[in-house]
Each structure stands twice: as structure tokens, then as C-alpha cells.
Amino acid sequence: MKPRRLDFYFDFISLYAYFAWRRLLPICDARGIELVVHPVVFGKLLDHWGQLGPAEVPPKKTFVYQSAYRYAALHGFAFDPPRSHPFNPLPALRVALVEVCGDRQREAINAIFEAGWSNGAEIGTAEALAAILDRAGLDGAALLHTASLPTAKAALRAETDAAITHGVFGVPTMRIGELLFWGNDQLDHVALALDGRDPLDATRVDAMLARPRAIDRQPRRTRQEPGEA
């Protein structure tokens, strides 16, 4: 049976989440797939799994932006990153919750993503977000007020915790059942899975994962313990 639902986990701080969002909407709409959107805090995922973000590794940050400008040029859309990056994504993520914007969730997400990643807008403050939402025909002040309430803050924490429970470790992640597809470059695989044509042989993956580990990297100690020279 073909799947009828796709769960999308994202953070506005990720340019690859924006790239995935641009393609994911037509992929789902063309197939009549229910798209369930989950704003999550990328930093919390990184903390949970013990990772660094791309912007925290200087040569990786350079590579990411080089790759992004190439991708946008090849796909024919404007790429102009937010005025400051990294930025505080929490106000935008709370606005993007279905508990906050209801049936206009897609409109709000579109407006924030496009303003930030195609038009170089500041999207890390409530004031900037309110103006972006107003221009999109939404009530920015009302949405930001609702997003500032304890219920919205709790909802975003719950979304992030639930994502970790499902094994989500990065953004963007697309989940079909319990299969995770991480990264903008996985959208062709997502389309195959939605069409019931996923070539994955899960038994081979399980066999690979069952192989013994021969060596483990030791974590680097970043601070001296008392008494160390």
C-alpha cells in the first residue's frame, strides 16, 4: 500500500530546509499526500545527538554557502540569506506551529522562508517577523502574540522531543512511516517511496548494522580537569 502521509521536520535556520520545502509541496500535492509539518529546534537535536551545526565548523560553513549558491543558480530561484546567521529561530518556529497559525500554516512558513532565504530579510526578531507576515496578508501582531504564550513554547518543545523520539537528528528530515529521509538531496528518494517504488532492501541494512565495530573514536576533551598540567 502506498503511504498517504509525510511528516516534515524543519528549522528556519537551515537553508537546506528551505530548499526541501520548495520541492516538497508540489511532490505531496501532486500525489494527494497529507503533509504534516513539524517545526523543531535544530540546536536541541544537535545537543541530543552530540553534533555540531554546519555554521560551527568554519570550512563546512564556507562549503554550504558555495553549494547553496550553485543549487539556487541551477534551479532558477533567488538565494539571498538572512541578514544575520546564525540567528535566533525560536520566534519564527513558534509562529509556524499549527497551534499558532492553524489552517494558514503553509502561508506563514512560505512567507518566512522566502523572506529570509530569498530576500535577505532579518527573520530572527519578532518585529521583523510581524512585518513579513503582514506583507503576506496575515496578522503578524496577533500571530506573534499567540506565539509568545506558554502554550506555544510548550508545543515547540513537544515537537522537538517527539522528533528525537522518532530518531530525527537533523533538518530537513522527511518521515514516511518510520523511514527517515534526511537532507534536501533525498527528495527523489522520497518521491519513490511515496509512489510505492522504494528500492531499499531493509534486510541488507539490518545485516550491515549487525556487523561488529572494530574501532571507536575517542571524544576529544575540550577542558582541563582540576589538577591537570
**CATH fold group:** Glutaredoxin
Strand order of the largest sheet: 2-1-3-4
Give helix % range. 40-55%
| Regions with little confidence, pLDDT below 50 for 5+ residues | 222-229
Please describe the structure with a list of short key phrases separated by commas or semicolons.
4-stranded mixed sheet, 11 helices, disordered C terminus, 229 residues, alpha+beta, Glutaredoxin
Summarize the structure.
The protein contains eleven helices and four strands; from the N terminus they run βαβααααααααββαα.
Explain what the structure shows.
51% of the residues lie in helices and 9% in strands. The chain has 229 residues and is an alpha+beta fold. It has a single domain (5-202), classed as Glutaredoxin (3-Layer(aba) Sandwich). It has a four-stranded mixed β-sheet with strand order 2-1-3-4, with helices on both faces. It is globular.
Helix-strand layout with pairing:
Blueprint (H helix, E strand, L loop, with lengths): L4 E6 L4 H17 L2 E6 L2 H8 L8 H18 L14 H6 L2 H4 L3 H13 L8 H10 L4 H8 L2 H16 L7 E4 L2 E4 L4 H8 L7 H8 L20
Parallel strand pairs: 1-2
Antiparallel strand pairs: 1-3, 3-4
